[in-house]
Specification:
- It is globular and about 50 Å long.
- The relative contact order is 0.19.
- Helices cover 34% and strands 20% of the residues.
- It is built from eight helices and ten strands.
- The protein starts with a strand and ends in a 5-residue tail after the last helix.
- Helix 3 packs across helix 5 and helix 7 packs antiparallel against helix 8.
- The chain is α/β, with parallel strands linked by helices.
- It has one domain: 4-Layer Sandwich (Purple Acid Phosphatase, chain A, domain 2), CATH 3.60.21.
- The longest helix is centred in the middle third of the chain and has 17 residues.
- It comes from Alkalicoccus luteus.
- InterPro entries: Ap4A_hydrolase (IPR050126), Calcineurin-like_PHP_lpxH (IPR024654), Metallo-depent_PP-like (IPR029052), Pesterase_MJ0912 (IPR011152).
- Pfam families: Metallophos_2 (PF12850).
């Protein structure tokens, strides 16, 4: 039995389509979505409907919260606030009332048995908040929030930082899925994880090439806020934020 962990699609339908195809070709039986579905990309409604159709479990990310209620002062750098608010208006305008209600009602965490001995606890950013940043190279002490949040689990999965990684701390595994639609780790390929859970649990990080030119064209065709297009195009093509 295989379970896929995906996250941070951010309205990038071209990337999501490629990942869903890769998941299907790998014989995955269940998909867990760790949040950030629609906001900050050209195809928010289309991505949300595909997530609802294909994913067995979905939890909320900070961008899902933003899509519903907007971005508050202090939640992003002041220099990015005006642009990101324009992006939020675009996203919310593309989503139906039913879709916005769905995002609003998503749970913030998931407990899932992987087999008869191992359990997964999944959150978007941290058990404490949708907005907490725990970077790849953080010290072990910063990761203790996962065990505190759910001491029963053997595996912890989170997303949010768009930078896939794996580490073991005191006999427990912590997995970051990376991002399907906006990777920040230097590779433009979509990132996700497969857990092979037939006997022991094996963690496989997947990278999937996709049609970035289609994603860039979607930005223009969708009427995405013009001031945000250069940034998203750079990330799509380079897998990193501009320096």
């Amino acid at each position: 039995m295989k379970t896929a962990l995906i996250s941070d699609v951010h309205g990038n339908e071209a990337a999501l389509d490629a990942v869903l195809e890769d998941i299907q070709s790998n014989g995955v039986s269940a998909i867990v979505m760790l949040g950030d579905i629609s906001f900050r990309g050209p195809k928010p409604a289309e991505c949300l409907e595909k997530i609802r159709r294909h994913c067995d479990y979905v939890i909320k990310g900070n961008a899902d919260e933003w899509a519903v209620r907007g971005i508050l002062d202090g939640e992003v750098p002041d220099g990015a606030l005006e642009m990101m608010r324009a992006e939020q208006v675009f996203t919310a305008g593309k989503l139906s009332d039913d879709q916005l209600t769905y995002l609003h009602n998503l749970p913030s965490s998931l407990e899932l048995p992987l087999n008869n001995r191992r359990q997964l606890f999944a959150v978007h950013a941290s058990p404490e908040s949708l907005f907490t940043v725990i970077p790849k190279h953080a010290g072990d002490d910063e990761f203790t929030v996962f065990n505190t949040g759910n001491p029963r689990a053997d595996f912890y999965a989170y997303a949010h930082i768009h930078d896939p990684h794996y580490r073991r701390i005191k006999g427990k595994s912590i997995i970051n899925t990376g991002s399907v639609g906006l990777p920040f780790d230097g590779s433009p390929e979509a990132s996700y994880v497969i857990l092979d859970r037939d006997d022991d649990i094996h963690v496989q990080f997947r990278r999937v090439s996709y049609d970035t030119a289609r994603a860039v064209q979607d930005l223009t065709d969708s009427g995405y806020p013009a001031e945000a297009i250069p940034l998203l195009r750079y990330i799509y093509e380079n897998g990193a934020r501009p320096v």
